[in-house]
Recover the amino acids of this structure.
């Protein structure tokens, strides 16, 4: 919907148009304070604008509950581990964009690959009975690790009959795409990915990673165009998950921020997801993987301890669950009398 169709004073429309907003959906991706700063409007004018926009928009039936803080569907995609699924109340929800952020080697790609296999299992085993499309924006697809996970699926998914696991040709149902810049990413998400979804070949879309292209293509003074591109990408991902009743997982990098409120000691950096508020408004669920400063052993294997943390989600409580990366995949850790034991 165009801005000039809103039932507000044309002075307000002119101000947001000068700020280079052209449609109603763009307004919902920007916090009210940012709209006020970018347009030069008063707080009252911005509230009138957003109220008029909300009154004229009718959400898609499949995601109307998502837009108002709930989840329209109870369907979940298991992450392949009952301990981690318990943290997520069954897994990743269908009909929403989930972000998984973390530092390098935290285990983000490991979990994404595991989901690419889990989605192929039948619904009764907490899969979606379809494939996955994996969009790479940096580096190459980790095909060697994927085949290792495939060979170890019977060990990871002991809750699934081995005959079901071995009957699936996992590698044939993972479609890999590469995007070197934002234009090619948008083309991929607008053409190739919707075609796979429409044909029922995939129901999981993984983007790895969202921050890479924005960091390489924009300088500090390009913030306005950068934010517009973030909103455009967010709208496309939300459209994919709602139109095709699918799961969208976006891997994000992190950045350091410094808290100077502690005047009595040194200023310490805090790790937060990259791309700031403009991007955070585009996701329904934000998860973070952290790599802790200790490790666990199991037989001849050793793994650094990770922690999967719920940063925000409309249906989840904030909290975390420790995990380890083994040969067969990512498993949650449970506390036993003599320390940590994997489940």
């Amino acid at each position: 919907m165009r801005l000039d169709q809103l039932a507000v004073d044309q002075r307000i429309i002119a101000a947001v148009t000068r700020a280079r907003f052209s449609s109603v959906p763009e307004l919902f991706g920007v916090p009210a304070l940012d709209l006020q700063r970018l347009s030069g409007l008063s707080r009252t004018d911005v509230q009138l604008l957003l109220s008029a926009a909300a009154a004229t928009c009718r959400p898609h039936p499949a995601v109307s509950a998502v837009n108002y803080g709930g989840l329209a569907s109870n369907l979940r995609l298991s992450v392949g581990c009952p301990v981690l699924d318990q943290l997520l109340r069954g897994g990743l929800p269908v009909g929403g964009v989930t972000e998984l952020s973390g530092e390098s080697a935290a285990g983000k790609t490991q979990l994404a690959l595991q989901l690419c296999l889990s989605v192929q299992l039948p619904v009764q085993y907490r899969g979606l009975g379809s494939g996955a499309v994996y969009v790479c924006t940096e580096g190459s697809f980790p095909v060697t690790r994927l085949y290792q996970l495939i060979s170890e699926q019977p060990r990871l998914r002991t809750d699934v009959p081995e005959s079901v696991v071995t009957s699936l040709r996992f590698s044939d149902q993972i479609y890999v795409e590469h995007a070197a810049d934002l234009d090619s990413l948008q083309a991929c998400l607008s053409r190739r990915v919707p075609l796979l979804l429409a044909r029922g070949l995939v129901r999981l879309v993984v983007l790895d990673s969202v921050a890479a292209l924005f960091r390489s293509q924009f300088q500090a003074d390009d913030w306005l165009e950068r934010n517009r591109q973030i909103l455009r990408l967010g709208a496309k991902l939300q459209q994919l998950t709602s139109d095709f009743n699918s799961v969208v997982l976006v891997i994000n990098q992190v950045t350091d921020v410094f808290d100077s409120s502690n005047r009595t000691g040194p200023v310490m950096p805090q790790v937060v997801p990259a791309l700031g508020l403009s991007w955070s408004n585009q996701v329904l669920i934000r998860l973070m993987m952290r790599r802790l400063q200790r490790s666990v052993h199991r037989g001849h294997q050793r793994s650094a301890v990770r922690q999967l943390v719920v940063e925000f989600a409309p249906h989840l409580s904030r909290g975390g669950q420790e995990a380890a990366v083994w040969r067969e995949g990512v498993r949650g850790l449970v506390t036993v009398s003599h320390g940590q034991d994997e489940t």
Summary: The chain has two domains: 1-58, 68-342. DSSP finds 14 helices and 14 strands in the chain. Residues 1-58 form a domain with the DNA polymerase; domain 1 fold (CATH 1.10.150). The chain has a mean pLDDT of 86.
